[in-house]
Amino acid sequence: MPKIKMPRHSPSLDMTPMVDLAFLLVTFFILTASFRSPEPIQVITPSSTSDKLMPENAVLITISPSGEVFYSVSGNEVRKKTLKRMASKYKINFTEKEVDEFGRMGSFGVSMQNLGKFINTEPQRRDKFPSKGIPMDSINNQLKDWIQYGWIEGMTKYKELKDEAESAGRAVKAEPLRFAIKADGNSNYIIVKEVIKCFTDLKIYRFNLLTNFEKGPND
Amino acid sequence: MAELNSDSGGSHKKGGKVKAKKQSTKVDMTPMVDLAFLLLTFFVLTSTFSKPKTMEITFPVPDDNPIEKDKNVMPVNGYTLLLTKDDRIFWYQGEFKDVPKNGLPATTLAELKFGEDLNKFLLDKNDKVEKEIKELKKRRLNKEINDSVYKSLAIKSKSDKLAPFFVLKADDKAVYRNLIDLIDEYNICNVGKYAVTDIMKSELELLTKATQQ
User: Fold this and answer.
1) What own/partner pairs with CB < 8 Å and gap ≥ 24 does B88-91 have?
2) Residue-range definition of the domain harbouring residue A64
3) What ipTM score was computed for the predicted complex, to two decimals?
4) CA of B112 vs chain A CAs: smallest distance (Å)
5) A23 found inside a domain
């Protein structure tokens, strides 16, 4: 009886397609990923049925459950210029290195007097920094100044980009600066009211309130 | 060189010709694949696709005239909702009256509860707009009107002169979440005319009295 010989297969298989796919996905994720800048506090926003997206270009005010106020504005360059304006107003000097570091930073919640110390803290330790929030009482309203200068710089940058795109005949990709408030659901309304007052004092009446998306009953 | 290749003894016999060892064209791709998948996992886990959602709100431009600030200009179909601590809402209709005026009694507050109670209240007051929006939605579903027409008609219906107007005021003890919940409820119930304003002193007094009961 002749023995039936099974064709012998090599145990190693061709991995090329898999590798192709893996690298394709890697490339995709690298290109689409946008890293979240580390936040000094954890905020749980209340949920709503609104599905509007967070604006790309915005001044963001974060309010912690215990009522501390944090500030941030989008754009590295804008942040640096805003800091320079604030520094000259409050007569506090920052080194070029500190300004650069500030440009890379996310939200912060310290007064101008403590900002230098905060900038020089290692990024990983910043959440341990005793952030008391940006002062916004009537005598020392630093928050209002931050908002105002961030607004000026943000809008200047937007106009620059817009003019550049228009002169080159391209579509304008940049968005005008918006104002967003990210408050914890359990923070007291009075703090939110005070922050809103800072905005309305500057004649800014339209905001985006950050919420968690939750499906509505109708759709 | 041949001396070094002492193990390939066969070639010595054939006239000492050095044969280049044929190397396989296949490269071991395992480390590369490992790395690729490591990176892939990292990016999959760290990337956040969804940008946070927001709720757009426009605040009323404050009155510059300080004397008129406390003056009440609420129409009859205007409802004021007052938010306070422990998720409680109180409301009254129309103009605020400290004392009976023009044959109408002084303002009293009624309580509302979050959830079904509030939803029913808003739908009841906003009945006409709600019905119109439903009708519009049906027409859009039946392809009678397109999206842009639907949007403009919906806005028109929501901002109708006869549509009820809701004012939202919160006292100092209210929580931010309640404000969002209430505005969200307005959006769900198709309320187009609403505003968030500061609470008046007289309202605050009445509210404090109501919460103590």
Assistant:
1) B88/B113, B88/B211, B89/B113, B89/B114, B89/B118, B89/B178, B89/B182, B90/B207, B90/B210, B91/B121
2) 47-213
3) 0.71
4) 19
5) no
